[in-house]
Amino acid sequence: MRDARLALAFPEPPTGRLLVIGADGAEDLSVFAPEITLIVEGMAHHHAALNARGFRTLTSPEGEAPFDHVLVTLPRSRDAARARIALGAAMLAPGGALWIDGQKTDGIESILKEIKGFSGLSDLHSKAHGKIARLTDPGAVPAGWAGGSFAPAPGFTTRAGVFSAEAVDPGSAALAAALPAKLPTRIVDLGAGWGWLSAQILTHPGVEVLHLVEADHTALECARANIADPRARFHWADARSFKLPDPVNGVIMNPPFHDGRSADPALGAAFIRTAASLLTGAGRLWMVANRHLPYEAELARHFADVSELGGDNRFKILTATGAGARHRRSR
Length: 331
What we know:
Helices cover 27% and strands 33% of the residues.
């Protein structure tokens, strides 16, 4: 969808150095020449896809300024959107152009309204349920938009844009409360976020190694800061394709079920498949899910024994063991 707006904003390919902050690995960026373009993208799967397409892709533009053009794409979080815009303004060369692009569902209209309070807008284009515009005075972006950190729980810090940045996710809290007193020796936390659930896992006796797997680079950096335990291993990776050289005997997860603003239970199903591939046959999975999500069928396809430990009208705590047993019996 974004490519339709990019074609309007850039009828000719831009020249000079270009910075793009936030990009989907599958979207059409053919209007931009890879040799002059740096993309900053923190989601592991998008980062890898963009690199594979020939774009130089980093998780931070630190030390890379100045740029003649900066394109900021809006995330869902308003605080994260403001921080991206402030970063983009800081990366500009004098006289450079700062562009803002986003879908209506991601708040582009409200952000542009805020921007009009301190800067004019030009080259405004509406297309494909979104808008793109150029700031006439990028130097006027408020310093406060750069953002800071949150303290969602004692001893923990997060940053704008990561999942559940301002408070412990209630699903993770419910899952932590349902875990047995003693846990397996080798555990993977799939989709570890900023580390709160992992920190609770590490308080249980029995744990010798805990692998934190998280696709959001910012969230994983928060987890690194929040967990100093030497048993923790940090992996910036897409949980849907994550592998380890040796199997583990425990997986604990609170999988996402949204892709952007759209509910997508296939994400949780992919996490279940990964969990089954990581576990020994005697290993056990613990997971939390929203009550309405139909994960039991997917669990039954990959595990011999599936049961519900508890929950309420909002969440269910599921556990499963016997990874691969159903497949072996069906051959």
